[in-house]
Amino acid sequence: MAVTLGSGLLKGLRIGLLGGSFNPAHDAHRHISLVALRHLNLHQVWWLVSPQNPLKSERGMAPFEQRMQSARDMAQHPAIRVTDMETQLGTRYTADTVRALTRRAPATHFVWLMGADNLLSFPRWHQWTRLMHSVPVAVIARPGYSLKARLSHAATRYAHSQYCVEAAAHLPGAKPPAWVFIEDQPNTLSSTRLRQELGAQWHTD
Predict the structure, then answer these.
(1) Is residue 204 predicted with pLDDT exceeding 80?
(2) End-to-end alpha carbon distance in the chain
(3) What is the pLDDT of residue 186?
(4) How do the domains of the chain map onto residue ranges?
(5) Which residues contact 156 (CB under 8 A, 6 or more apart)?
(6) How many whole angstroms separate alpha carbon 56 and alpha carbon 23?
(7) What does 51-109 look like in DSSP terms, one character per residue?
(8) Is the pLDDT assigned to residue 194 strictly greater than 60?
(9) How many CB atoms lie within 10 A of CB 145?
(10) Closest Cα to residue 122, out of 91, 161, 164, 153?
């Protein structure tokens, strides 16, 4: 089911936001979403397929519609919605996307979702501290990154705002900054590895 700004699906919901290039989508994206749905007691998870990730090169990036279809094929869950929300909003950076969503849907409890690998590069994101102060954040473990993520600059800076995993269900209603680190049988797959395995089957410009 498509999600649009005028769809009437927003009021009172707890929604996880998972952004990325999805180049291509893979099972780790789905794993993160299912873990978040379970631990955070979310109603939905929205996959925000980025027109172009500012931190990634356009070279090797598949066309937008191909990445959208890859995400639709992978999601396969009634609570996971694949969206072109950033295209609808006309935003490029996550902080701007989240600000636009929270302004348009102030009664919705949004939570930003990310893998532990992204927590390491989080300080490189545009206005990342503003993002931390805009919505709660849930970080899901990824193999080989848990210890590094827990000791990262972002984790250290916001250590005073970290929830214990036992209280994760309360995170969507928390006043930011608030975040949680969740360990839950992490998936090892990555988009880079999947592109290598797909080879010529995955078409990029």
Answers:
(1) no
(2) 28
(3) 56
(4) 14-201
(5) none
(6) 11
(7) SS-TTS-STTPPPHHHHHHHHHHHH-STTEEEE-HHHHHT--SHHHHHHHHHHH-TTSE
(8) no
(9) 18
(10) 153
pLDDT of 9: 53
Q: How far is CA 144 from CA 103, 119, 128, 150, in A?
A: 37, 13, 23, 12
Q: Per-residue confidence at 16, pLDDT binned at 50, 70, 90?
A: very high
User: How confident is the model at residue 202, as a pLDDT?
Assistant: 42
Residue 87 neighbours by CB distance under 10 Å: 14
Tokens found for residue 160: 């005073």
Q: Which one-letter DSSP state was computed for residue 161?
A: G
pLDDT on residue 150:
95
Calpha distance 106→7 (Å, rounded): 15
Q: Which two tokens stand for residue 59?
A: 């070279």
Examine the pLDDT at 160 and tell me if it is beyond 70.
Answer: yes
Supply φ then ψ for residue 13, to 5 degrees: -90, 155
Name which of 38, 37, 39 is nearest 16 in CA terms: 37
DSSP per-residue codes, 104-140: H-TTSEEEEEEEHHHHHHGGGSTTHHHHHTTS-EEEE
Q: Is 57 exposed, middle or buried (0-12, 13-18, 19+ CB in 10 A)?
A: exposed
Superfamily classification of domain 14-201: HUPs (3.40.50.620)
